[in-house]
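Re: folding output
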Amino acid sequence: MNDSLDGSERQAPRALERLVERASRAGASDIHLQMLGDSAQISFRLDGVMTPIDTLNNPLAERMVGRIKYLARLKTYQDSLPQDGRIGKAELGCASDIRVATYPTVTGEKIVLRLFTGAPAKTLRDLQLPSAACDDLEAFLRRNCGLLLLTGPAGSGKTTTIYACLRYLAETGGRHIITVEDPVEQIVPGVMQTEICEARGLSFATASRHLLRQDPQVLVIGEIRDEETATIAVRAALTGHLVIATLHGGSCRTVLERLLVLCPDKYAALSSTELVFNQRLLRRVCKDCAGQGCENCLGTGYQGRVPIVEWLRLDERIRREARENGSETIKVCPSLQDCAQTLVRDGITDSKEYQNMFSS
């Protein structure tokens, strides 16, 4: 991108294509374009970190914004209210569709482009989880019923783990698998996938309630947000369904606490839950420059991310202790810190990443 493109409206389409191509090549998950009066700042979200990339003069920036809105079928004249849309992959020669979100700010409009990967879902072994954690995940997925809860903050890799589970289930075959997602980020062959739409009244709870009538053997719920969805997940897991869901919490213990708050039947909630996964992502030291910063990592010293996890496999002893003494008695080993320290020791990540994750 450079200011020489500023002279012609015809160059905005090509400039946008080059921007998306550059972001895809760098492995960015999002492109941020922020209008700043007489210019615009472009940043990529690389490995979870906002990285400034370029500054555009206003004429080209405005034309690029107009081009994005046009392709996403948004109102090009509307800049005082948020808008959401999608750009089809054929429009920009991408591997998959791009989700577009606009938002008004005091310095001008902000646009975020979410780049969905067109690559097949990773396998569980591709995730580079600790081998024991992967073994427990696969053992759960071979079951006929039970509840798996995945937790972690936004951007912690939960969705990637879910898609790896879906690929494992689809490749194993023989079961009817239904998902409820917000949004559907990857198409998994052999899986019936549903995207919720709150504006049309299709929430996680509504979709989950009706999808149980579609005779699923495996139900994936993108997020448990309320009591109704929690109750549906627990009852389904107790009545012969394998259920995978995310639930926000800071640890395996606090996830169980939240489930017990959301689900009125505490006994059923503990009885249905088989496995709890809590994960984060740490940036991987760039192999090409050993963390010094190079063109391939855009000078960051990091390229890609690796998960750290703590997990809890519930058995009758743990369930009994939780019923009698509460979830605060539950201890998880190894912890997230233990997992991260192993990666630092092996040179996969570094102490700076470790400190950034756990300093607070």
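--- second protein (sequence, then structure) ---
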Amino acid sequence: MLKVTNTLGGKEEEFKPINPSEVTFYQCGPTVYWNQHIGNMRAVVIADLIRRSIEYLGFPVKFVRNYTDFGHMTSDADEGEDKMEKAAKRESLSPRAIADKYIEQYEKDVKALNTLAPTVRARATDYLDQMIKMVQELMQKGYAYATPKAIYYDISKFEHYYDLSGHVAEKEQEGAGHGTVSDPNKKQPADFALWFFKTGDHKNALQFWPSPFTSPEVENGYGFPGWHIECSAMASTVLGVTLDFHMGGIEHIPVHHTNEIAQSEAISGKKFVNYWLHNGHLMLNGKKIAKSDGNFFTLEQLEEKGYDPMHLRYLFLQTSYRMQQNFTWEAMDAARTAYVKLINIYARNSSQTDNQGEIIAKAKEKFTAAIEDDFNFPQALAVLWDLVKSDAKAYDINSTIDDFDRILGLEIEKHVNLISATPNGLTAEISDLVDKRKQARTNKDWQKADEIRQLLKTQYKYNVQDESTK
């Protein structure tokens, strides 16, 4: 019996699917204006682990991840320029080209981390008609009103507005803006924009579309959607009125997801999401990862330092998805060491016999219990290590590891096969580093070549011999 901690209500609940033959799952994806950092990668890996877990337990999943390919106003500090516009100017590309570039990079990264492909990749600009229709419905139902600057959602009209966050109105009003620029014509400071007109702070917006909405300052209703209406439109269009799961970072609780509920339920009159899941932040040496502060790493940068994407995936398994996790190089090294050890044990077991093993029932029972306990991946990992240290038959251990890896997604068997296919008996990790060092030498990047040599020597106890020195 799967139990999950539902942010809406803040307690553990038994999972009861709307339709057992197709569980619906929506994850808030990236705004594609730059390379995503490893904090973003933790979010996508966690969603993948949870999706795999649900499928492992026998429920097929229709998984949707969105891509925000137009910018959104997040605070008064944006001064009328959104993230996509800044990126377009920074790289002298159109917003569309920026989105294409960084979606491609994102897909490359998440594939390297062995995440399953979404059933649907929902790109925001493909759902503009649905967003406009939702705004129209909200206005017709009396939940929205117009000012010369924007169309706003009137939060006073939605009785359960603070149910997800637990905030009270008086407290919320202390932080004016609530996901939009200031506007003296707003009824409440926390009212949020459904549609921005191309005027005032936004008169030079690079991305804008016509709409049926009117403003004394704009012809043809030109403007662009607010961030929050985007996810409501995509989720309801692709997955239906009520979803089983909706997931995002904890930062989405008080604003973005709160607003999604208000919009969606005002239109449908039905519950928007049955189970809200939120992942904790990844910290870097105890500080919040932030592009604006330069306090971040990308997956590519980790690979340049000699880490395999599976080392990072293994690291993410070590902390509860709801908890904050701290990234340090010491933790990364420990994850790599543990992963390499696991691969070597599997390889040794494989070398002992060609027999097809059986899944060990008691180990599977413990593993499943961990997964059913609110996706307790650290405990599931502990069950895995108890298994490999047991005195069970080698081929049964490996067959059970293969079964567990349907959730863990560590590509254990694949990496073992890479080792056996590597010339001179080198592990895949060592072989990859040797190749990268050769390339660095070819490029006359002597500093990088020396860094890789030192890594091979200290981490893997492998001494490089260059052909020129033989």
